[in-house]
Amino acid sequence: MLRSTDRLIVHVDVDAFFASVEQLLVPSLRDRPVIVGSGCIASCSYEARASGLRAGMPLSQARRLCPRAVVLEGNYPIYRCFAEHVWEVFRRYATGLETFLDEAYGDATGMEAVHGSPLELGRSLQQAVRAEVGLPVSVGLASGRMMAKLASGSAKPYGVAWIRPGQEADFLAPLPVKKLPGVGGRTAERLHDLNIQTIAQMRRLTRQTLRCMFARRGDALYDRCRGIPDESALSRQAPPLPKTISRETTFHQPTSRNEELRGMLEYLTERAVRTARGKGLRAGTVELSIRYDDWKQDASAASLEAPTDRDDEVFALVLRLLDRLHKRRVALRHVGITLSNFTRDRGEPALFDLPVGSLPAGGRAGCGLRIAERGARNAERKKPTDLSVSVERQEFPERSAPPRDRSNLYRALDAIRDRWGHSAIVQGESVNLLGELKQNDYGFILRTPSLTK
Fold first, then answer.
1. How many CB atoms lie within 10 A of CB 175?
2. Number of domains making up the chain
3. Could you confirm whether 266 is annotated as catalytic?
4. Where would I find the beta strands (DSSP E) of 110-242?
5. Neighbouring C-beta atoms of residue 237, cutoff 10 Å
6. Is 204 inside any structural domain?
7. CA separation (Å) from 226 to 142, 177, 205?
8. Which of 13, 118, 163, 280 has a CA that sits 20 to 30 A from residue 414's CA?
9. Same domain membership, residue 260 and residue 195
């Protein structure tokens, strides 16, 4: 039993989400290897995974490994509807939900009086989702987010696992270092060079050693490998800033057409920036990645002058990165946009973003006159005195310049799209995709629908 002071965080993960939805909608697909994706695997059923298939694998390789697999392009809006239904059930068992596409965290602290022990709560939640939605989910319960996610991963597929308070270190000890959140491929290689294979071996490194090896991440890795939670209750703190938000896709056919490239890049930029704007974030860095038809790839990143949540400012930087990267006379098959270095939008205007009309008299309509007068004085200094200089003074007509801050415009666009779907408005160079790609309420139907990271 839990003590009154113990926390209980729940992690719910939908097993093989896209493929499970397709098997639910089409009964003839059940117990068969199912692949969802176009160009590469976005999701595959456990029957397909038994043949060695995995997410991100090219379809050509997947077909060789599992010739009898059923390949479907998928339907993202349908998957979103199923996900929302799952989270509706989840809200009956936990508070302060933090949801993603196929997984969610919730705080179930104090729910024992309603749903019983943690294992009983997890099984009840799992059975309710299966009965009401029809999808299999794995449930992990622990005192923190990291341990809850590891617990659900250990219970896959369709299992429930609870890591009791005080048992975090024992649970982590035999796991390979790659299983620890924050340990990617390069970090694992550096640890392997030191003959550190398991999390138990990683604990031999002091905090100072990890800090020297991985800078600020070293402190987090030191705590994580010991199972020390690095966060408080989900419902009592602001959600952490995401490291990146990305949008990427593969073209239906490799292309070198400038209009199609710019149109797709603006569309991906809109989607990424709109996601950041919806979370109240401004991006400080933009990265563009491209992959040529011969599978060679390249990427480049640059920082914005100031963090922004405006489509036009991000897209202008994307185009500069495209000019820098796309130097070969080879068609592109894949492009992607990644935003990072986020700050929270606190509603504070930039120092020099003055409202229209706040400039002193002559600041706008008189600008042409002032420039002409200055040019005349400079000419008089350079020309001989016996020559006269004729300067035509022309005043530009008064007109209201467009406001520099487009925040209200983008908020209005977001409100329209939230109600009528993203495809309700097609703006900028995204119009180049009209007639080239099909649309639904969610937007253009891409060959490989990109997910937010």
1. 17
2. 3
3. no
4. 137-142, 160-162
5. 10
6. yes
7. 14, 12, 11
8. 13
9. no
Residues 23 and 156 in one domain: yes
Angstrom distances, CA of residue 132 to CA of 87, 105, 120, 358: 11, 20, 18, 59
Answer yes or no: is 367 within a domain: no
Query: What tokens does 323 get?
Result: 């000019």
Residue 323 makes CB contacts below 8 A (sequence gap 6+) with none
Where in the sequence is the domain holding 143, given as residue range(s)? 9-162
In a shared domain, residues 224 and 287: no
Residue 363 covered by a domain: no
Is 258 found in the same domain as 194? no
Q: Is the pTM of this model over 0.85?
A: no
Phi, psi (degrees; rounded to nearest 5) at 269: -65, -45
Beta bridge partners of 247: 337
Q: Transcribe 73-114 into DSSP letters.
A: ---HHHHHHHHHHHHHHHTTT-EEEEE-SSEEEEE-TTTHHH
Q: Which of 22, 47, 103, 260 is catalytic?
A: 103
Cβ atoms 285, 340 nearer than 8 A? yes
422 part of a folded domain: yes
Break the chain down into helix, strand, coil percent, rounded to 5.
Answer: 40, 20, 40
Backbone angles phi, psi at 103, to 5 degrees: -150, 160
Q: What is the CATH number of the domain that holds 307?
A: 3.30.1490.100
Length of the chain equals 453
| 64's tokens | 């060789």
pLDDT of the chain along its 453 residues, tens only?
566 567 899 999 999 999 999 999 999 999 999 999 877 898 999 999 999 999 888 888 999 999 999 999 888 889 989 999 999 999 999 988 888 889 999 999 988 888 899 999 999 999 999 999 999 999 999 998 999 999 999 999 999 999 999 899 999 999 999 999 889 888 999 999 999 999 999 999 999 999 999 988 899 899 999 988 665 445 445 566 788 899 988 888 889 999 999 999 999 999 999 999 988 999 999 999 999 999 898 999 999 999 999 999 999 999 999 999 999 999 999 999 999 999 987 765 554 454 444 444 444 433 443 433 444 444 444 444 443 444 444 444 444 444 456 778 888 898 998 888 888 889 889 998 998 888 877 788 776 655 433
